[in-house]
Amino acid sequence: MERKSKKYEIRVEGKDSAFDSVQILDSSTSEKYARQFFSDDISLYESCFIMLLNRANKVIGWGKISQGGVSSTVVDISIVCKFAVDTLAKGVILVHNHPSGNCKPGTEDIRITDRLKKALGLFDCSLLDHIILTEDKSYSFADENW
């Protein structure tokens, strides 16, 4: 029995993305862009997305990493790194929400930020920020000098 393998490729698609490409200048620009990924479910369950940036901090892609329950979601480092390598990104911004309304990072948020920063560094890619969103607030690791 012959086993078929999956094919992975790097390609650039046309400008038919659901979201415009913008230059990220600060955490407020990141937050505004990232809020497009969430809808009324921002207060229901955690979801995690990444924004992929080129060297000029222009968004070249984005991806949904996971969707979880009311108090957690899984961030698989290898999936984030795959997105970064496939798009030749030089910067990544991790974004997730806290349905509780409390945007203060928890122990796991801090741990995943540190692990992801180290992993992306192996590919000459930087974790530029980790943003936590609630319905009406946000927390930026970069603004807090993490």
From TrEMBL:
Keywords for the protein's UniProt record, in alphabetical order: Hydrolase, Metal-binding, Metalloprotease, Protease, Zinc
Pfam families named in the record: RadC
Membrane-spanning segments: none
Record carries keyword Hydrolase: yes
Keyword Hydrolase attached: yes
Protein name per the record: JAB domain-containing protein
Domain of life: Bacteria
GO molecular function: metal ion binding; metallopeptidase activity
Domain MPN: 23-146
InterPro entries: MPN, RadC_JAB, UPF0758, UPF0758_CS
Gene Ontology BP terms: proteolysis
